[in-house]
User: Fold this.
Amino acid sequence: MNATKPYIKVVVGVILNEQTGEILLGQRPKGKPWEDWWEFPGGKIEEGESQKQALVRELKEELGIDVHTCTPWVTFTYEYPKTIVNLAFWRVTGWDGTPRSLEEQQLAWTTPEEANKLGELLPASLPPLRWLRLPPHYAISNIQQPENSQAWLANLQQQLDQGVKLVQLREPSWPDGPAAASLKDVFERAIGCCHAAGARVLINSVHPKAWWKLADGVQLRAQDALLADARPLPEEKYLVGVSAHNTADALYAQVLGADFVVLGHVLETPSHPDQPPLGWDGFASIAGEAGLPVYAIGGQSAATLEIAREHGAHGIAAIRGLAG
Ligand SMILES: Nc1nc2c([nH]c(=O)n2[C@@H]2O[C@H](COP(=O)(O)OP(=O)(O)OP(=O)(O)O)[C@@H](O)[C@H]2O)c(=O)[nH]1
Ligand SMILES: [Mg+2]
Assistant:
């Protein structure tokens, strides 16, 4: 990065209507740089302000609302031709008052999928719009034995019925190895029922590379991510997740151009009895640096989604049931 460019710290609100999935975007006022381009409401953090204080102030100044519920989401740095901007995106889910235009800017509620129909979007707003399409729950398989396949597929169907939209097949200790034909059969059936429910399936990188493109993408183990020198699957069609245990893993996910990080384990979990958990504070500090949406893993369930979000998670990943 060019050190002579001004470095600006900004906080941005993803103002979310959780019922409809819509977000609030605004058009930049006349006379400002990038006038008329659409953006998330927000602005520069002032000297001595925390991110949250700046967010509350900006949304009061720009929209006249009093924010009472918000959580950190993703912070990343974007280099424009003339400036470098560090953008801390926060999810805003509770506020008093009705957003109205106080800076003569146009406002619009839209979905992340439809936002580009409004007009030109600030370049640094595009990754967050893509990330907002990631669901809050990420279900991970743990079938272990071919004889458990039927029961797992039935359980998967239940989770799909409850709204799970992202599933990972991860079976490192399958009896005939992670490339076994019996596992391929389960994989294909899982894809069938997930696609019928509008859900996506990722395959763990422990499984054959030839399977990755049959799925909707790959979940790279930390060790496999570190061996890759580029994103292994194209962006539009596939998702790439990276498993991370520390800051270095998480930062490398960003270098690879991954879509998200799975970070853990956060709490004690039967699947990793010997390694110490990160704890929520450890999770929050790594997630804050990841520059990508982060799923918390390890001891997670529907009941931990809220605490995960308070610590900067996009969502939660778990083997044991998620929905509910
Ligand atoms: N609010 C906002 N700013 C963004 C986004 N994406 C992005 O690159 N930025 C950049 O972050 C900076 C925020 O500036 P701003 O003009 O909103 O600042 P502000 O509200 O404090 O206004 P002011 O400078 O008039 O006091 C700009 O350089 C803008 O280009 C976004 O989605 N929302
Ligand atoms: Mg602003």
About this structure: The chain has two domains: 7-131, 137-318. The two ends are 45 Å apart (CA to CA).
